[in-house]
What we know:
Elements: H1 6-19, H2 31-35, H3 50-53, E1 64-81, E2 87-89, E3 95-105, E4 110-117, E5 121-125, E6 138-153, E7 158-178, E8 210-232, E9 237-244, E10 247-259, E11 270-272, E12 275-277, H4 283-288, E13 309-317, E14 320-328, E15 333-342, E16 349-353, E17 364-367, E18 373-382, E19 388-397, E20 415-425, E21 430-446, E22 464-480
Amino acid sequence: MRACVWYALVLFAGVPTLLSAQGFGIYEQGTCAMGRAGTGVAAPCSDGSAMFFNPAGLAGLTGAHATIGVTLIDIQGGFTDDVFQQHTELDDPLIGVPQLYISYGATSKLGIGVGLFAPYGLETRWPMTFDGRFAGYKNYLRSIYIQPTLAYQLTPRLSLGGGLDIVLGKVELNQRLDLAQAPVPASILPVSPGMPPAVFGQFGIAPGTDFANTHLEATKTTVGAHFGAIFKASDQLSFGANFLTQAKFEYSGTASFNQVLTGLVVPASLTVGALTIPAGTPIDVLLGAPVTSGGLGLFDPATGVFRTQPVTTTIRNPAQLELGVAYKLANGWTLLGDYQLTWWSQFDELDITFPQDASGLLSRKLFENYQNTSGFRFGAEWAKSAKWTLRGGYLHHDGAAPAETVTPLLPEGQRNEFTAGATVKLAKSLTADLAYQFVRQGDRRGRTREPIFNQVPTTGSNNGLYTLHAHLFGVSLGYAF
Length: 481
């Protein structure tokens, strides 16, 4: 019966996929910067969002400034399978990502502040008719970063800054289980050493037979940091660097299982190992009945495999480095360019543990084999007048997941994005920012199921094509006092 708990492992395997999402790692943490494609490492916006893009940007600020904003994300996409060419659309709602920044120029050289933002977030929903429901059909990721920040202007040309990131993380995953792929309990059909267990599909159960719903929630608070520097080579030219440290999450969650009725009956007497199942026996009764009464006891709340139980894993969010340049032209124009490197190769394996499994047989190592990614951002800003500032930009980013790990939980890939934005001065101390961003992801082949029995994933499991694009809308209000 231990083999059946493998399904909980598959469920928890979705966590790193969500956290490591290059495409859904949300870089749009300020409406001003969003309008110019996220550029700003060398010249952050003055709205306090430097706490995210480059903490050194707080040095030299005068007075106090508060900014509150939100990025609305409308994700559209789907999957087309190879065999029937059936297309299934994502069913995602409009997702809101908040930002709050409060900054203060304590002296002419010292800047302080605190920021609240959500650089990791995801909500993926698929219809219950989609084969990918067996990998995950409704999944949420919520990460709130709280960052107290200090910055100091060492010389008129060099500023340094840093911030401590206190991260509040929560993940929720939902998945259906396919009875055809469910291992037959070892107490009924013993497994030879080194051999995978038999599955119910070998005894006539059709693929795609839902028999259980799994739900997982996990929370963790961890700590990371930001460090940044800005060097002004001249009044027109500046360079910047920003580094985000690796963050380690030791997640502890709870997995619960609920039976989904199949309505099936055994058509003829069947012998499975030590168990003889009479013709006419309802499959749902067999799965839920205690072993002592001739059932499999999978959903027995006292001893069944599919009972509520804890599950843990350790996830490392990789380090990031951004390098930027900014050049001020005549007539209020500024050109900006950034390069971003993310060390996703730090996320290559994942160990998952069930603490209540004294034998240790349930421990599982998953192979993700993520790749380092590079991103290139280009932006332009024009201070048209004292009231209006206009922006635009373009960015390109690699995909972190290799071809063998593109799944319904995150069908991410290489992206091209275009942005536009503006700042309007509403009153002496009040400004409003607006921005729009279009995301076009290249089509990617992927799979709808996770490999079973500790198999290393390969592209041979890919069974269709994922498509995705998104519209992002940013709005914020800033108040100087």
